[in-house]
Amino acid sequence: MRLKSGLSMRFAAATVTENKMGRVMTKWAKQSAADLGRGIGAGQIDPVALTQHFLDAIQSHPMADRIYARVTPDRALAEANAASERAILGRRLSPLDGVPVSWKDLFDTAGVETEAGSALLKGRMPVSDAAVLKTASAMGLVCLGKTHMSELAFSGLGLNPVTATSPCVNDLEAVAGGSSSGAATSVAFGLAAAAVGSDTGGSVRIPSAWNDLVGLKTTSGRLSLQGVVPLAAKFDTVGPLCRTVEDAAMMLAALEGRAGPDLRGAYGLKGRRFGALQTIVMEDLSPEVAAAYDESLARLRAAGAEIVPIEVPELARSIADAGVLYTSEAWATWGVEIAAQPDLMFAPIRERFEAGQATKASDYVRAWQDLEKLRAIWATATASLDAVLCPTAPNLPPKTDKLMEQGQYYVTANLLTLRNTRVGNLTGGCGITLPTGVPSCGLLLTAGPMQEDRLLRLAKAVETALA
């Protein structure tokens, strides 16, 4: 291992043979961000060597150009060098100081293009970092680069023939889920320790589920959207995609510039009460998803949890109205640019935007009034529950070729994919998806607004039960 000049004997003692180093680096690719951070803190991992490992892995990976839109090696190594010096001096900024992560290509990066997966924004060069990136950098996180995504974040599938379509880690011929497709696959393929994405209707949770990761959707307004390319700002949220619940907790803390919740004291599941949502979310499940969900509930019950079925009939109307709410705001945000150069967009995504231009103001206002009523009903219906459960996605990742060849199939698959996750966005809460052990099948836990810390402690116990 080549060591940076000036490193203390603490890191020099970690020098190993070339063969052993190869094994160490292979381990790094699959280790949790929290474990990597602990290794740095213990003097067992040099942030520079760790960052160089990920940069080398990106450079040599055969699908890296379908995962990363841009890599930022100069920034990454400069940040890693600073993290290394802090570690030597015992002045680390956070538990993840020196850990390399990726960023979805809608977070502004100073002097580096941020194009949000769209040819409409080709060459767009921000002059400053997004607020959450500034905060994360101030906590010592290392920025590896920007990851591919659905165009302007308006698809849950991750199909993007304009820039690149990231492959699902479980099926290279299938899409990875969107819109944070590259974010998820950067972690799943071992090309980042963790990732930061955005979620407007499921864009963190869907790719996390399909790539067997943990994905946290935060409450709208909890994390700053300053410097984040918008889709529908009333629903847009920022969230991490990670290997473990602990990573998600640490990443949330880093994005907020604070100490994270202490998961060491995470309570078990005995006496915990979950609502198994029945309205809409259990329809049209693939057999694999249904079996994984049933097995997950069985494991939670075996761990002592009480699971009760719940119905919220009013949810059906809000799901139906979601198109009015999302497309209207999305068209208001991007309509001028799309109308000026419509041919630059993948037609199914452009048409989804265009659906918002015909909405009457009265219909939009009524949809929001109905949604506010639903949120009050939902809060009452779930008040006695620790969280609401459902399958994260009702389907498995569709094949890329089939999505490209069959236009209506794309529309149907996209709406089905986002159906369950959208419940959390519409009801205004936070949510987390966990791997079930069945490839591309996630378990979704949804809680109320600003309950992320409590939800993360609960999710840690669920993670243990599902392991």
UniProtKB/TrEMBL annotation:
Is Cell membrane included in the keywords of this UniProt record? no
One Pfam family, short name: Amidase
Q: Which UniProt keywords apply?
A: Ligase, Transferase
- InterPro entries linked: Amidase (IPR000120), Amidase_CS (IPR020556), Amidase_dom (IPR023631), AS_sf (IPR036928)
Q: Which Gene3D superfamilies does this entry report, sorted A to Z?
A: Amidase signature (AS) domain
What EC number(s) would the UniProt record show?
Answer: 6.3.5.-
Q: Which residues form the Amidase domain?
A: 50-456
Q: Give an example GO molecular function.
A: transferase activity
By what name is this protein known?
Glutamyl-tRNA(Gln) amidotransferase subunit A
Its source organism is Pelagimonas varians
